[in-house]
UniProtKB/TrEMBL annotation:
<keyword id="KW-0106">Calcium</keyword>
<dbReference type="GO" id="GO:0005102">
    <property type="term" value="F:signaling receptor binding"/>
</dbReference>
<dbReference type="GO" id="GO:0070527">
    <property type="term" value="P:platelet aggregation"/>
</dbReference>
<keyword id="KW-1015">Disulfide bond</keyword>
<dbReference type="Pfam" id="PF08702">
    <property type="entry name" value="Fib_alpha"/>
</dbReference>
<keyword id="KW-0094">Blood coagulation</keyword>
<dbReference type="InterPro" id="IPR036056">
    <property type="entry name" value="Fibrinogen-like_C"/>
</dbReference>
<dbReference type="InterPro" id="IPR020837">
    <property type="entry name" value="Fibrinogen_CS"/>
</dbReference>
<keyword id="KW-0356">Hemostasis</keyword>
<keyword id="KW-0479">Metal-binding</keyword>
<dbReference type="GO" id="GO:0072377">
    <property type="term" value="P:blood coagulation, common pathway"/>
</dbReference>
<dbReference type="GO" id="GO:0051258">
    <property type="term" value="P:protein polymerization"/>
</dbReference>
<dbReference type="Pfam" id="PF00147">
    <property type="entry name" value="Fibrinogen_C"/>
</dbReference>
<dbReference type="InterPro" id="IPR012290">
    <property type="entry name" value="Fibrinogen_a/b/g_coil_dom"/>
</dbReference>
<keyword id="KW-0175">Coiled coil</keyword>
<dbReference type="InterPro" id="IPR014716">
    <property type="entry name" value="Fibrinogen_a/b/g_C_1"/>
</dbReference>
<dbReference type="GO" id="GO:0046872">
    <property type="term" value="F:metal ion binding"/>
</dbReference>
Length: 412
């Protein structure tokens, strides 16, 4: 009976814990949700404690009986030399040994149940603490919508040109797009408006997605810039096709020591789906992270650099292989990216806590599948945070500054 109660309580706790992330986008109402289930869980924990106490009492009684049986067997052996009595005593001792084994097994079960009970009680305390914190945070009525800024434009720089000064969510409609779509605009003190197309923050979003998901986009856009997402290849194509001013792709990188570096690529563009969202750019504009898109000589083969360059490569996903490799780079790495054979840069890779990982950590295929930029850290170091964002070339350098090794383009 006790194990079934344990499983029920554990199941309820897992249900409760997993529901926190989905119940309400703003976390409001979670406390009420918790308190609704709290009495049932408390009742199950009480049942578990009663069952454990009952089992413990039974074990004590059994131990006392075993002692009595041992004494009786010893006395019988001493008082009667008869062979029959000796056999009976031996049988009694065998019974005693079986009882002892049963007691040991029961004691182990009790110990395991006590550990589960203690773990559940700790988890209950943690959930109650979380509930109180959420209750304090959610004094305001639950808001099921987020703040979307009113200014619109063709991209985030156009939004900034129209007077927007706050980073956040905006609707934009590039000339090639059939309808407006939501983006996160990063607007800095110089009124530069970066259209963010990718964010990696904490590994909360799985980037192992199929072709359609990478085409349409996935993840979560948030006004406070705390979430992970891929904007979508089709939207990126609309943002870069037919631009009258060259588009710069800026890549911001953060490692696990908090160091920050970046790389800029001029004349960045994505072809339409019929050409498998091929990546092209004119040239590496600068930055202190190095030019990983140009490929890298790993020392494994003389053609390493050629076969790991990304300019001109089509996009691949686990279910749509467009790379130059005999196998499927996207499948073995568990992501979508502009694969060659396979990569020197891979910002949609698997998220590894702490940065360092090994071929064994990489799973079945054992290849470097982390979030890598090999001209900064080697391929067995997975970065903590990445951002990919777009801006017109003429606005990249602002206020007479020189941005990370990039010369100012005054008259362009």
């Amino acid at each position: 009976m006790a194990p079934s109660v344990v499983h029920a309580a554990v199941g309820l706790l897992f249900l409760l814990a997993s529901a926190h992330g989905k119940y309400c986008p703003t976390t409001c109402g979670v406390a009420d949700y918790l308190f609704r289930y709290l009495p049932d869980i408390d009742r199950d924990l009480t049942y578990m404690e009663n069952d454990l106490e009952h089992i413990a009492n039974m074990t004590v009684d059994t131990e006392e009986k075993v002692v009595i049986m041992k004494d009786s067997a010893t006395a019988a052996q001493k008082s009667s030399p008869s062979e029959n009595y000796i056999k009976k005593s031996a049988n009694m001792l065998e019974d005693v040994i079986r009882y002892e084994k049963t007691i040991f097994a029961q004691e182990k079960q009790i110990f395991d149940l006590q550990n589960i009970l203690a773990s559940n009680q700790r988890r209950m305390a943690e959930l109650e603490t979380m509930s109180n914190q959420l209750k304090m945070k959610c004094q305001e009525p639950c808001q099921d919508s987020v703040v979307i800024q009113p200014t619109t434009g063709t991209d985030c720089q156009d939004v900034a040109n129209k007077g927007a000064t706050t980073s956040g969510l905006y609707y934009i409609k590039p000339a090639a797009a059939p309808e407006p779509f939501l983006v996160y605009c990063e607007i800095d003190e110089y009124r530069r408006g970066f259209t963010v197309i990718q964010r990696r923050r904490d590994g909360s979003v799985d980037f192992n997605k199929n072709w359609v998901q990478y085409k349409n986009g996935f993840g979560y856009l948030s006004p406070d810039d705390t979430t992970e997402f891929w904007l979508g290849n089709e939207k990126i194509h609309w943002l870069t096709v037919g631009a009258t001013i060259p588009t710069v792709l800026r890549i911001d990188l953060v490692d696990w020591q908090g160091n920050k570096k970046h790389a800029d690529y001029n004349m960045f563009a994505l072809s339409p789906e019929i050409d498998m969202f091929r990546l092209t750019y004119g040239f590496y504009l600068g930055g202190d992270a190095g030019d990983a898109f140009a490929g890298f000589d790993f020392g494994d083969d003389p053609s390493d650099k050629f076969y790991t360059m990304h300019n001109g490569q089509q996009f691949s996903t686990p279910d749509k292989d467009n790379d130059k490799y005999d196998g499927n780079c996207a499948q073995q790495d568990g992501s979508g990216w502009w694969m060659n054979r396979c990569h020197a840069a891979h910002l949609n890779g698997k998220y590894y806590q702490g940065g360092r990982y090994t071929a064994k950590d990489a799973g079945e295929y054992g290849f470097d599948n982390g979030i890598i930029w090999v001209t900064w850290h080697d391929r067995w170091y997975s970065l903590k945070e990445t951002t990919m964002k777009l801006i017109p070339l003429t606005r990249l350098a602002a206020e007479g500054t020189q941005q990370g090794g990039m010369k100012q383009f005054g008259g362009l």
